[in-house]
Hints:
Blueprint: E1 28-32, H1 38-52, E2 57-61, H2 65-71, H3 77-86, E3 88-91, H4 105-112, E4 117-123, E5 136-142, E6 152-156, E7 159-162, H5 168-184, E8 189-194, H6 202-214, E9 221-226, H7 227-236, E10 243-246, H8 248-261, E11 271-273, E12 278-280, H9 299-311, H10 315-329, H11 345-355
The chain binds adenosine-5'-triphosphate.
Adenosine-5'-triphosphate (ATP) binds near residues 266, 284, 285 and 289.
Amino acid sequence: MGDPVNQAHFLFPAPAPVCYLEKNMTRRVTLIRGDGIGPEICDAVVDVLAASGFKIDWDEQLAGQGALQTVGSSLPDKTLRSIRKNRVALKGPCTTQVGKGFPSVNVRLRKQLKLYANVRPIESLGQLKSHYKDIDMVIIRENTESLYSGIEHEVAPGVVESIKVITRKASERIARYAFEYAKQNKRKKVTAIHKANIMKLSDGLFLDCARKISRRYPKIEFDDKLVDNACMQLVTRPQQFDILLLENLYGDIVSDLAAGLVGGLGVTPGSNIGQKEAVFEAVHGSAPDIAGQGVANPTAMILSSALMLDHMKQPRIAAQIRQAVQKALSNRRNWTPDLGGKGTTKRFTKAVIKEL
Length: 356
Ligand code: ATP
């Protein structure tokens, strides 16, 4: 294996710019396996990291629907305490019920720990069949407010309201994060995505903050697009995008769209960065439709662990893992069904480990 750090191809962004890890931090990491396919793909990551030679002392904790059933809380205090102590967590997806049930664990976790920046690199994987080539962009999504404020009420029978909260503080903070990220990762352009022509106050404020912060970074190009136009341009000419800066809901939707451009939800990793803690998780959800079948694609989760290693100042091991994933993907027999193959989670994981 050559020097993986110097291989230009398939390098997701280097360490997150806002990294608050101390030098002598232990390598104890909170592990939340989550629901649905979570346990299967987390097993894959644990095996891959063990094979990488990087020793992690996993502090396993519960969250999600399974946790609600076993310990009576979908986000136990003990889990939060563990993340606060370890500062780094790897998290499998947690099921969020549609239209009913307990509030989203993912959203609560991000709010409780103030994980304000959701960073999702979207990069073409040469090995996968895709209509799109040379995509290399990063979605930076504000993670704590907007329509995810959770403020909903019934005004009168048959009339409900959902409140979109946008604050100057959070908007400036995420804009600053995006520009700092661009600077540190040698990226050239930040595009703010919004609907300020309709939501003049809320999206207007978000855009205003992005513009204001952009003036402090004259070397980084800045533009903005309406979210509908941005979606159209993402499917017609995605290569024009570099960093996309979005508020919470648009970030969620555009992330799935962008994942579809490079091979789907099975291959897109992500991180949630706060001032003290960071939680790494795939873009996808718990995929209950395929849970327990052994066919979930662990790529997104393995690549999320590589982002975690970058964050823990272990870029060499992170790069080795990415390279091993690339090599495993180059053999179609390893592909899981979401990629059009007949492979299994275990087969793909074994292939990655073999390459390591
Ligand atoms: P959430 O709202 O929690 O993000 P979602 O409703 O977007 O979840 P997902 O759980 O992400 O839904 O699944 C969407 C589709 O993608 C499902 O058909 C699922 O099987 C598929 N999928 C998601 N992740 C994977 C994966 N790792 N491997 C294979 N298929 C996946």
